[in-house]
Structures are given as C-alpha cells and as structure tokens.
Amino acid sequence: xxxxxxxxxxxxxxxxxxxxxxxxxxxxxxxxxxxxxxxxxxxxxxxxxxxxxxxxxxxxxxxxxxxxxxxxxxxxxxxxxxxxxxxxxxxxxxxxxxxxxxxxxxxxxxxxxxxxxxxxxxxxxxxxxxxxxxxxxxxxxxxxxxxxxxxxxxxxxxxxxxxxxxxxxxxxxxxxxxxxxxxxxxxxxxxxxxxxxxxxxxxxxxxxxxxxxxxxxxxxxxxxxxxxxxxxxxxxxxxxxxxxxxxxxxxxxxxxxxxxxxxxxxxxxxxxxxxxxxxxxxxxxxxxxxxxxxxxxxxxxxxxxxxxxxxxxxxxxxxxxxx
Length: 323
Prior knowledge:
7-stranded parallel sheet, 13 strands, alpha/beta
C-alpha cells in the first residue's frame, strides 16, 4: 500500500488518467508518466493509444466522464477544442464542469493544461507572470479566464483539489497547432517559404511539448502545488529569425520567412477560417510576448528544459515521411 494524495487516503495504487490523450500534450504527459513507471489510463474520443490502457469517452457527457475517470488518483485535462471563438465560449465551460464533477465524484485530483490568453490588456509586461492582470480584451481570452476561474473556485470551495499549468505557445512532436507548424513548418514540409503574422525580429518565449508533459507531472505529484497557477517552463526568449536559422541548420536548407502585411489580413480572413480566428489575437505578435517561468524554476530547480535545437529536430522528425 502507498499513501496517495487524496486527503490522506490509503490507496493500493495510484492511477493517472489523461484526458485528451491523443493530442501532443496528452502524449507528452503519458510519456512522462511512463518514464516514472506510473500506471496510466488514456482517454480519447476514438484513437487508441499504443501500449496504454485506452478508454473511449465523450467528455461532454458527464456519465461517460465519470466512468472514464473511475478509480483515478490524478486526472490530467489536456483536451483541446477547435480554434473558434463560438465553440470556446459554448463548449469549454461545459467540458470543464463535466470534468470537475467527475473528479469530485471519483475523489481525483485535477491537473489542467491551460494557455495564457487570459492576461491583458495589451501590451503585456515583459515578462508577464502569474500575477499579471487578467483583463483580456479578446473573446478567447475571456473564455479561458472563465474556465480557469471556475476550476480554482472548485478548489477553494473544497469540491476538488486542482492545479493549473499554463503554457506559452508550444512546439514539439506532431504538434500541428503549434505556431511553429501553422504557416511555418507546414509550408517548409511542402518545400514552400514560411510565413508569419509577426515580424520575425520580435522576441517571444516558447515551450517544448515534452517539457510541458514532464512539468505537469511534477506539479501533480507535489501536494503543495495545488490551488495555484504555474507557468510551465519555457526556453529563452527568441525570434523567428533565430528559430528559422536552427531549422535551416537541421535541414541543411536556406528558407527565408516572409511577413504577412496587416492590410492583407482582412481580405484573407474572408477566405481563411484560421486567419479569421487569429485576428483578435494579433496583439500577441505586435510586441515582445515573453512569459516568466521563475515561479516554476524556483519550485523545481533541477528541472532541465530541452534546448530549442533538440526540440526542433525532434519535431521535424515527427513530421518526416520516413518516420
């Protein structure tokens, strides 16, 4: 028998349940758990995860969510939704409430993989941290703030124990929603010149998906982290010019990035749904967008981040036809 973190209850074996297990972050959490030889259950809508016990569930269905998390000690909410404002406004609160209720019923601790859209108004401090103002001027930012606030309130009220890990824009193996992939790596794979919404000289921080997975597990296993928000570890602030130089080094190529002029975005948004949805988030690309991870680093001083060169090479290999 071992002592679990669920209110001092003795449990025979901790079970780590990963919701949204087929995505880049879900897979990263599973890899981190397996590296620690912990028992993992993957929950997806339809895709079986090789080598892991997999349960299929619709997280909008509260009973299915309860059943999928039955017996769990820890539940990692790594699910994503389509990148549209209407879906985020309507579906994120439903999904979050279903997961909170399931964790309450099953006496499981909840670890939520969050983003940083709730910080605002722009321009943000450089760097911004967990205490920065949360007055977002975007609909997506308001949606993210709503669900994070709901989760922390569930913790404060004693309904569940929960912790939030917030990530900067991330990249990594099969991370198709990464800013490194959209209009950038995606075009390079097709032997086209990459494009960016921001000028390539603006500094930003990025997180490696596999580091996010390891960091979320560290937060989960430390009882003192609960009831708080933590920025997950990032690399040094860098520019897309530097990123492209690293990609060119890996590929032995000489790609050059082009900047999409802002006057073009409005007509492009008429025919491109991704650009339409990105328009309200353009403040992230106009000024340095640098996230502080000092709080996490102070708590876990031995955590080693993956160098950009290594992470980018792994990401490139994950999209290679030969792999």
